[in-house]
Structure formats: C-alpha cells, structure tokens
Amino acid sequence: MTENIRINNPNVKYTDTHIEAQYCYHTTAVRRDGDTLTVTPSVSELEFRTERHVPRLGVMLVGWGGNNGTTVTAAVLANRLGLTWRTKTGEQKANYYGSLFQSSTVCLGEGPDGKEVNIPFRDLLPMMHPNDIVFDGWDISSMDLGSAMERAEVLDWSLQEKLRPHMSHLRPRASIYIPEFIAANQAGRADNVLKGTMAEQVEQIRADIQDFRHSSGVDKVIVLWTANTERFCDLTAGVNDTAKNLLAAIQSGGEVSPSTLFAVASILEGCAYINGSPQNTFVPGAIELAVERNVFIAGDDFKSGQTKIKSVLVDFLISAGIKPTSIVSYNHLGNNDGMNLSAPQQFRSKEISKSNVVDDMVNSNPILYHNGEKPDHCVVIKYVPYVGDSKRAMDEYTSEIMMGGTNTIAMHNTCEDSLLASPIILDLVLLTELCQRVCVRPQGSETFQSFHSVLAILSFMCKAPLVPPGAPLVNAYFRQRACIENIMRACLGLPPQNHMHLESYVSYLSGFGAVAGQYGFSAPSKDFLLGSGLETG
Amino acid sequence: MTENIRINNPNVKYTDTHIEAQYCYHTSAVRRDGDTLTVTPSVSELEFRTERRVPRLGVMLVGWGGNNGTTVTAAVLANRLGLTWRTKTGEQKANYYGSLFQSSTVCLGPGPDGKEVNIPFRDLLPMVHPNDIVFDGWDISSMDLGSAMERAEVLDWSLQEKLRPHMSCLRPRASIYIPEFIAANQVGRADNILKGTMAEQVEQIRADIQDFRHSSGVEKVIVLWTANTERFCDLTAGVNDTAKNLLAAIQSGGEVSPSTLFAVASILEGCAYINGSPQNTFVPGAIELAVERNVFIAGDDFKSGQTKIKSVLVDFLISAGIKPTSIVSYNHLGNNDGMNLSAPQQFRSKEISKSNVVDDMVNSNPILYRKGEKPDHCVVIKYVPYVGDSKRAMDEYTSEIMMGGTNTIAMHNTCEDSLLASPIILDLVLLTELCQRVCVRPQGSETFQSFHSVLAILSFMCKAPLVPPGAPLVNAYFRQRACIENIMRACLGLPPQNHMHLEHKLQRGFLPRHDNRIYDNVATKMVLSTGYHASQQNGVCAHVVKEATIG
C-alpha cells in the first residue's frame, strides 16, 4: 500500500512511522431557556496520530462455510488472482463493487482546472488492501470451501470452476454448536462441532486463533461472526452482567451463547470481534471485558439490503419534511439464513434488529412526530427455498404530505444477499484494522488514546449499531458515511466536508476565482433596485 | 418572526439590524503530480452579515390558476386561518408537510442532558413565515381561484368548501400567450391574455408588478413561474445571446418565449425570478441582464417527486460503491401539466431536464465508471386523464454489484404532484428572500457582496439546477441539503455539521463540561489572523475569550 496523498500543511507532519495531524474539532452546546436556545460553540484541539505501516491481516470468520463466508473468500481470491470469466453477456472481471472503501470515492478538493478531484475512499489513509487478507475460520459444517461455494449457489458457475482448486483445500475448523440457540433445522449441517465443556471449547477457539496467527504469519487477527442468527440471550444478573460473572459462567457452564463464547475467546486473545448477525452477542459482561482489555468490538447485523435502503429513504423523507406513517417490509429468501430464520426465536432476533432503524430519524423531527409517536413498522421474513440467495425485499412506505395528502412508495428490491454482504464484511474488517492504528491526544493531555472499545464508527455497516453508553445512535446512511469520511479526513488534518461551494456561489469574492469576471464587469452596477433587497457595503 | 436562537460567541455580534458573524471557510486545492496528489488546505476569513428584519413578502405566480398555483395559495390560506376539516379518517389540520424549512429539522448540538437538540430548519435564521406571504399572479385562464381549485381536484372537498369564499375573490391577471411555445391543446384555456406588441406586454407585466407592490403594501416581490412547460428556445446570436440583444429582440418582436418575457420584466423591476418548469427561460441574455441588475434568478424545474428520489437513490448506490447501469423511469399523470407534456416539443424540454440528474454522481466515481461512461437512462411520460394530479412514477434501477451480480430495484411512487410541489414553491421563495438579506465580506475587502445572481443554493429544489459559470453542478440530494444548512449555519458563525461525534468515540471524554458562560456579544471582537493558524487560534478560543471578556 503506497500513500499517494500528501497534505501540504504545517499542521500535518509525516514521520517515518506516523501521520501526525493537528485538528480543531468543533462542537456546540445548546441550553434552552424558555423559548430561547443559546448555542455555545467551542473548539477542542486534538492531535491525530495514524500509524503508516499496514500490517499483514488475518480474518477469521465464524460460519466460514456459509454463503457469506464462501463468497467473500472467493471474491478476495478472484480479485487477488485477477480472474476473469465468461458470462452469456461477455467477459466479467473480479471486482469489489459494493465496498465503501474499494469502490466509492470521496472529494478531496478542487484541482487547478476548478473541477472536483475524487479519489477512492481507501486512498485517504494507508489501509489494508482486501487482496492481502488471509482468511481462516470455523463452521459447524465440515464441508470444504469449494463444495460450500457450490452449495451456496451464489457465484457464476464458470467462476466457480476457476476458483475450485483454490477453495477446495480450505476447511473450516470445528465450531461451537449449542442447538438451543439456532433453529432445529440446522442440525443436519452440524457435523463439525467441538466437544468438551464450555470452558474447554473457549480454550480451543483461543488455540485456533493462536494457531492461525502463527501458521499464517499474519501480524493481526480480526474475528467476525457471519454465522447463523441466534435467539436472543436472557440478560441475567450473576451470569452475563459483568465480565467477571461472564467468565465464571463460562467456567460453570451457564447460559452463554456460542457467539458470546467466540467474542470472549477473541477478546482474551486481543482480537477485535465483529458481530454480523442480529443476536445480542454483546451482553454487558462481554462489553465490559472488551473495555477492560482494550479490544475493539462492533456490530450488530450487516446492513446490506432492505435496511440499508430504509436508512436512506426514511432519512430522505423526514429530512424533506415528509412524514412516513407506515413502513411495511416483506422479505423472502431461500438460503440457509432464511431457513434458520424460519424458526420463531431466531426471526425475533432479526425483527428486533430491523425495527429500530428509523428511530433516530423519527426522534430528530418533533414537527412531524409528537413525543413518543412513531410510524407503524412491520417486518415479515419468509423462507422460500427457490429464490436461494437472491433475497427479495418488498417495502411499502406510506407518508403524509401537505394538507392531508398521501405519498405511497412501493419498492421491490432483488438483493443478492451474499454479494451485498461480502463487500460489507471487507469494509468492516478494513476499517477496524485502520482504527487500531489511529490514536488521538486532546490538547493538554499527555497521552494518546484510541477509539472507545465499542467501535461506533462501524455503524455505517450495521443494522443495529452498538455504540458506547451515552453516545447518539445514528442509523441515517449519509450521516454515518459523513462520520467515517470526516474522521478519516481529521487524521489528515482536513476539516469536515462542507458542501458549501461558497467560492462559486458568492459574487465577486476576490481571490476566490473570478466568477463574475466572466461577464466582463467588475463592480456591482449602481442602479440596482431596492426591490430586490440586495445591498452592498 | 422572533428569533429564538442566540449564538453565544464573541465572533457573532447582534446589532439592532444585523447578525454579524466571523467565519472561517475551509477549502482544499489539489494538485496532481504523477500518482501523487498534493492537497493544500486553506482558510478564508469571511464576515457574514444577515439583516434581521423580515420584510412583508409578496409572491406573484405565473400560472396562478393552475394546480400548483391554486394549491399553494389554498395551503397558505388554510394555514393562516388555522383551518381544520373532516376526512373519513378524522379531523385534518392544515400543515406544511414537505417543506424543508417548515417541516424538517436541523441539529444544533447536544443539550445539557447530552441529547441532540433539533430545531425547525426555519428557526436557524430570521425568515418570512409562509402564512405571511401575499399572493398574486397571472394566468392565461381567467377562472377565479375558487373555481380553479375545484378544477384542479387536488384538495379535499370539505377543505375546498371552507376555502372557496377566500379563494373566489382572487382573479389572475391577464398573461402572455404565444401559442407556439406550449402545446396546442392549451388553447381552450387561453381566455385571459394580453394584447399588443411583445414590448407592450412586457411593460404591462412590469405595471402589474408595480400595481401589486403598491396596492398590497408588500415591501418585496418575488416572481415564480409555475405555468406550462414551454418548448426549448433556440439560442440565436443577435437575439438572446446578450442582455442588449435580448432587450432589442423584445422591442422588435423576435423569438422570445413568454417565460423569458416574464423573467425580463421581473429583472427590470428588481424582482427575483424563479423558474419552476424545465424550459430554458434563462437564455444567456436573460442571465446577463440579471447579473447586470444584481437580481437573483434561480431554476429550473421543481424537484418534487421522481427526480428527487432519484437524486437520493443514485447518490446512495454510487456512494456505497454499487454501479447503477440502467435507470428507467415511467410516469403517467392526468393534470393539465400532463396534457401539455403530451406534445412532443414540451415533453422534450422535460426529458432534457430530467436526464442530467445523475451526471454529477456518475462523474464523481471513476472506479465504477470509466471516462464518458454513463448508465442507460430512459424517461417516459404519458398523459392519463383519470389519475389527475395523482402522478405515478414507476422506476427500475438495475445495478451491478460484486462479481457480476445484479441488484434490481423497482419502485412505484404515487406522487401527488401539486401537494409535493407546493411546499417546494414556498421553500424557493423563502430561501430567495433570505438570500437577499445575506451578504459576505472577505477579510481585507471593504465591501460586502451578495450571492451570485444565479442563486445556486436553490439547487436543492430544482431538477436541473442553474449555477454560475464554472460552479460545480450538484444534484445529490443530501449534499444539496448540507449546502443550505451549512451556509445558514455560517451566517451564525457556526462551523459545518461534521457528524463525527468524536466526544463519544474515544475512550475518555475530552470536552469541557457544559459551558454556562455567556459572552458579551457586543463588546468584544476576536482578532483573527490569516492562514490555517487562524483556526488554531480559534481553537484556543476558550482561553482567548476568557481574557477578552474580562477585558
């Protein structure tokens, strides 16, 4: 990874090992006094320090043999090998479409020709390239990844043929299987499961992580759950309310879900853990453990299809002053995720995860919604084997517009579940890895600190973002994206994107480019009419 | 209009007449050298000055008797009168849903409880309330607004009954009708038209504006075209290429469209002119005239329904790294707009207006699109009388996702044409009026300047935004919204929204506890120096301010 962006500013220093940027962080505090709001702006001076050396990254997937696991592994292999394959419409090249960092751009500023210069998002800071990720993982099914890719029915057959030799020798490690947490219909796949006590299984997962680290030679390991949705876990005092109790419950064999066991094993190994499913893996004890150990955790539930668009459309409607009053979402899918979700308890996890996505936007607008008012919101998921991984999302948004009018949007979205989720898996691990190399020192403080263990900047990729206590929960897509972009810009000492274009919109701004000059005059004419309300000087 | 927001900062001064804010505007210049991009940030210090007094505003609509004209007038009346009416589902209150300023909110910052404080967008700066707008206008149909409201079939019947006494006394002034510019099928409505030469008709429009201003007692008039879509006008050297030639062509009766005649009359009267339809009203001569006279113009074509969502969805897809490869938009509608658009030349204007809306987003992503590559984009509009004002938009977005996969979004959108356009009409005139009270002075300059005559900040409400030469054309919805919000924040000396929430993202908080100090807004003024260090000094604002306040 070579850096091809250089910031020309005395406040940004490039050392051999770091980019050090002085940054002014602006906030405002608001105080209400009767009808009057007093807004007090303030500025905190921060120093951002970003490690320039990009390590060799290993990613361990829980559910490696599932549709997401095989697809993301295959996509990285195909990109690394530069594969092309024939389809009926022509030759197709491997790509990372759908990845925020690999396939979307950010605007850096204006070039000498006055045009905006857009660069790949990944180029803002030194980041891992996904081609360099080494994958490993666990699965309750022992199927090798070549066969599992075939079982997934996601990738073109001609691509599968080219990939099979590279995939077939990859075999998932034995995983933790506690039948009561996932649907009974998964029993048939569970032929690769760990034995022994809960504590022994956690030890085995830790040993697996150590083994992978040593045998593959990676510098850093991140663990990500892309396995089955589990049922929600009861929050019980004495069991999972504190780190200590959780560790004790694992020793004594209490109610701890497999995903929490993986999280605990990862945290104890110092590996960031990301939860791509909706269940409450991060019980309070698991969060406390992560904070104690200074390890990043993030989740929950990949925001890939229907919910992603919902976090765009509802934000759009409410931000335009239109009042969504009913949101109804029907889904059907035919992959193993759909089969597992056909069980009521697992569906319930998904339903909870999907239900809160509009709350922040609704709460932000007290003109449209009185306190406590919410749109009707209904989510249905059905298992329809025939459609396979090609998930269908059918949404109806009914909104109240001016004077009692109604706006109805009906949407049919063919989502291709795993092809949308795979680039998000990559974005999650790449951003997590980057965050591990960033630290911040507030002026007056002697020490640098890293991000909070609950890595809220990953909200963009999550349906039900986990945030530190007291932090605002943001689901709105473009705000989440702006958050990532502006924090990465801060690492370069660049101020937030303002989208103002003042230099183009204000006349006669000297030194701002001679917009008015193109009309061949230099001063406002004197006989302008008062009626326009314009004035100068 | 009372201001209920107070900025507690020595860089913001409230005088009796103005809000004066010192502002650091950040830009970056990028230079490419082989594979390396060098980014040079810079800061311009600006002073924003906003007049606090909100004038009495009159709005003159061209096409006042049309569906938009009657609906927006009725909505303002109903809100002003606080009307309620029965529907089968209960009592309905008048509202301004769909208006950016009246019904959407912006975040000011966290309150003492740490929760975000969201306020109505309109409260950021002193703005005209739509209830206080006085309407007038022209129409080629002489029908009074009560009957025209009935003809429009937009509002609930029980509301119409309550409004009729207030609407029936409103009659549009005679308008300019040049048959070749609109569809032949409009001839039946044209019973209220000006006679005489082109020059005489322009004089009459100017006289109408003066008459309205004097008789209504408004201090300021804004003119807005919400009439029929015209065919495009040929750009001809000697006719409409310069202000002088355009004025001469009007005198000699050359090819000048009615909408351009209205624009010229407005500009000559010093009234801002907004074009809500797709045609090229703003020929180069008209733009030059507006710039010469320092009058605001804005357009084109209300962005209300299908295109608005398109500017959200395509921005979303491309910003997520997904590649839209085909966008197909079918529309049918049964109002008079639809009838007029059923003629090929008028449809062509609409098609052009709708076709470029994704260009800025496509061009911003050279990873997905190689140079010159664009998604297929097809727009069909059909006239189906039965659906009336309840416009249907059916869109299919096909996108390429990872490894050759396909994502297909099909959308059916029942748009209620005039109910979506009316609040946008209000937003357009309210923002234009506000912009007339804002001026900016760069540090080192003696004089304040207003916005460029081509008021690009109104892009948010327009399908085909008109921008000053050389200015970037932005269609992406959320960027356009951020532009308005951040410029209005700048008028209060507030920095752009950053959405970072850094104070919640680090291991330990770093912000000072909620600050209760109130700075003296009048007595002290920060001294700012140039360059990036200026904002560094801003950064130590807390210390400096303490001293300043003591001093």
From TrEMBL, chain A:
Its EC number is 5.5.1.4. It holds the Pfam family NAD_binding_5. GO terms for biological process: inositol biosynthetic process; phospholipid biosynthetic process. Keywords: Cytoplasm, Inositol biosynthesis, Isomerase, Lipid biosynthesis, Lipid metabolism, NAD, Phospholipid biosynthesis, Phospholipid metabolism. Pathway: Polyol metabolism; myo-inositol biosynthesis; myo-inositol from D-glucose 6-phosphate: step 1/2. It is found in: Cytoplasm. Key enzyme in myo-inositol biosynthesis pathway that catalyzes the conversion of glucose 6-phosphate to 1-myo-inositol 1-phosphate in a NAD-dependent manner. Rate-limiting enzyme in the synthesis of all inositol-containing compounds. This is inositol-3-phosphate synthase. The lineage of its organism: Eukaryota, Metazoa, Chordata, Craniata, Vertebrata. The gene is ISYNA1.
Automatic annotation (TrEMBL), chain B:
GO terms for cellular component: cytoplasm. SUPFAM superfamilies: Glyceraldehyde-3-phosphate dehydrogenase-like, C-terminal domain, NAD(P)-binding Rossmann-fold domains. Keywords: Cytoplasm, Inositol biosynthesis, Isomerase, Lipid biosynthesis, Lipid metabolism, NAD, Phospholipid biosynthesis, Phospholipid metabolism. GO terms for biological process: inositol biosynthetic process; phospholipid biosynthetic process. Signal peptide: none annotated. GO terms for molecular function: inositol-3-phosphate synthase activity. The keyword Cell membrane does not apply. It is found in: Cytoplasm. The keyword Lipid biosynthesis applies. Pfam families: Inos-1-P_synth (PF01658), NAD_binding_5 (PF07994). InterPro entries: Myo-inos-1-P_Synthase, Myo-inos-1-P_Synthase_GAPDH, NAD(P)-bd_dom_sf. Its EC number is 5.5.1.4. It comes from the Eukaryota. Belongs to the myo-inositol 1-phosphate synthase family. This is inositol-3-phosphate synthase. It comes from Oncorhynchus tshawytscha (Chinook salmon).
